[in-house]
Amino acid sequence: MKNYQKVMYFLLVIMIALQLSACKNKQKKPTPQKKPNITQKMPTPKELTKIENDIETIIKEGQKLQESQQSKQSSKSSVSALAPQNQQQGGKSTSKGGNKQKQQKEPPEKKSWITIDKTVKDIHTNWNVLSPIAAKAGASTDLLNNVSTAINTLTTKSTNKLLNDTMIAANNVYKYISEIENYFKTTSPPDIKKLRFYNRDIDFNSSIGKWDVATKDINDLKVIWKTLKVKLPKDAKTASDKFDSGLSELEKAVQAKDSTITKIKSNVLESDIKSLEKASGSKK
């Protein structure tokens, strides 16, 4: 009997010891902590905004140069039409005109190219800062290399004073703005910038007769718009309808291969894009 009690007592001690050990293990087990939200995006870097603004500056200066060239061509046509009359009246008016030209100040075209050259350098500076930030945010090496290549192409075209090529190259840099923005917080969908890229590319390429590029851009623009449209807030319904109409009109102009009408329709669509940005909550 005593032996039985000893065995039972021994078993009871073992059971208590095992229970205590289990309790201690439960207490030592670390409480699971919430994982940090790795999908949370960084605010848009100021350098990205600066590059975007610099591209706008280059394109605006390019448009000034285009208008100046068109004005000169119109003036030459007028002078050519009046040339026979001037020849009949003698050479006095011609000599006076020559003296006036000598007294004129430096042409505004040179000032625009100076602005473009300086702005291109600023883009290089800001990209050197932005590139590692974008890489840290998750941008791929291929994307970063594409941006660098586009900026270098812009530099080459602007240095050689190739106006149309410079505007197209500046717009190609802009194309990557939306892709870089995908890795940061934005106030409106980055794809809206893709709409602007394709719209401008249609304008610039149609003006030099590259209708194959313009036609491809129309198709790409329609694909982007189809994806973006369903993501827009309800408040953007009116702006969305306007864009639908504007896109249809632009497509007709491209199909007709009318560069004058295409430019007008492209300008209208740019206004519609600004309305989309505003309706989507952009501060721009």
Automatic annotation (TrEMBL):
UniProt KW NADP keyword: no
Listed Basic and acidic residues bias regions: 47-64, 103-114
Superkingdom, taxonomy of origin: Bacteria
Keyword Signal among record annotations: yes
Protein keywords: Signal
Region (Disordered): 26-114
Biased composition (Low complexity): 65-101
Signal peptide interval: 1-22
The protein's name in its UniProt record: Lipoprotein
